[in-house]
């Protein structure tokens, strides 16, 4: 079982209290996760103090915590890796671009990682969403269209990939890409307003949630758990 948190943006208003509440909700789950994924924008400005705070707040989880870089982050190294998570395999792709809000994907790197294990049910994690969600101000800073198209082709020939997960949009959304479900996770703090066709950035105080990805009868199921 993999739990996904996203976009705490530590350093912003109420962000520390919100992440602490999210960690508390993970600890209160009836089933302990094999690992926790934080799918980007751990920090708000990329200051070292924000990452120190993240380590402090995430420490009570106990389970392995896997981080992804987002457009607000400033990591010294790329966050690209493949790790086991119980019965699942997590392949994390670093889509961040220094100084930019949009993202790029090294599709060749991902294809090589997927070729290493064609059997284990796999979750591919990105920060930037690879599909349009119908909110232009967010879609304009998503994954590059050419990379999304290449990802769709890769997913179509990679049946072991059961889910693509992302953050970035501060909303839960679901779509298909290359026949594979793509789901985005809310922020642990503030959410993007659901304004289809909206061109101006607008956030709301709608409740946050986390995602729980688990195998059930051989199928990958994703639960949306309010915090």
Structure notes:
The structure is a single chain. With 227 residues, the chain is an alpha/beta fold. It has one domain (2-226): Purple Acid Phosphatase, chain A, domain 2, CATH 3.60.21.10. Helices cover 22% and strands 27% of the residues. It is built from five helices and 13 strands. It has helices at residues 15-27, 48-58, 107-115, 136-139, 145-156, and strands spanning 2-5, 35-38, 65-67, 81-85, 88-92, 122-125, 161-166, 173-177, 180-184, 191-192, 203-204, 209-216, 219-226. Helix 1 (15-27) packs parallel to helix 2 (48-58). The chain is globular. The relative contact order is 0.18.
Q: What's the alpha carbon Rg, rounded to whole Å?
A: 16 Å
Query: Per CATH, which architecture?
Result: 4-Layer Sandwich
Which class best fits the helix and strand makeup?
Answer: alpha/beta
Strand content: 25-35%
The largest sheet is: 6 strands, mixed
Helical stretch tally: 5
CATH superfamily: Metallo-dependent phosphatases
Q: Which bin fits the share of residues in helices?
A: 10-25%
End-to-end C-alpha gap: 18 Å
For the biggest β-sheet, the strand order reads 4-5-6-7-9-8
* Secondary structure: number of strands: 13
Key attributes of the depicted protein:
Purple Acid Phosphatase, chain A, domain 2, six-stranded mixed beta sheet, five-stranded mixed beta sheet, alpha/beta, 227 residues
């Amino acid at each position: 079982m993999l739990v996904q948190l996203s976009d705490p943006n530590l350093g912003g208003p109420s962000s520390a209290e919100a992440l602490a509440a999210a960690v508390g909700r993970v600890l209160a789950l009836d089933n302990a996760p094999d690992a926790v994924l934080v799918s980007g924008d751990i920090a708000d400005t990329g200051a070292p103090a924000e990452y120190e705070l993240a380590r402090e707040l995430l420490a009570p989880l106990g389970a392995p915590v896997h981080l992804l870089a987002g457009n607000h982050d400033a990591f010294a190294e790329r966050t690209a890796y493949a790790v086991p998570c119980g019965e699942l395999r997590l392949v994390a792709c670093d889509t961040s671009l220094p100084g930019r809000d949009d993202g790029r994907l090294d599709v060749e790197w991902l294809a090589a990682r997927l070729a290493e294990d064609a059997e284990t049910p796999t979750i591919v994690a990105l920060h930037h969403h690879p599909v349009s969600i119908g909110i232009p101000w967010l879609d304009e800073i998503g994954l590059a269209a050419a990379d999304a198209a290449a990802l769709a082709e890769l997913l179509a020939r990679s049946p072991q990939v059961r889910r693509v997960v992302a953050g970035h949009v501060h909303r839960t959304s679901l779509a298909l890409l290359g026949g594979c479900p793509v789901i985005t996770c809310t922020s642990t703090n503030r959410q993007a307003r659901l304004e289809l066709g909206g061109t101006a950035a607008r956030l709301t105080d709608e409740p946050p949630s986390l995602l729980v990805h688990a195998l059930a009868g051989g199928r990958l199921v994703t639960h949306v758990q309010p915090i």
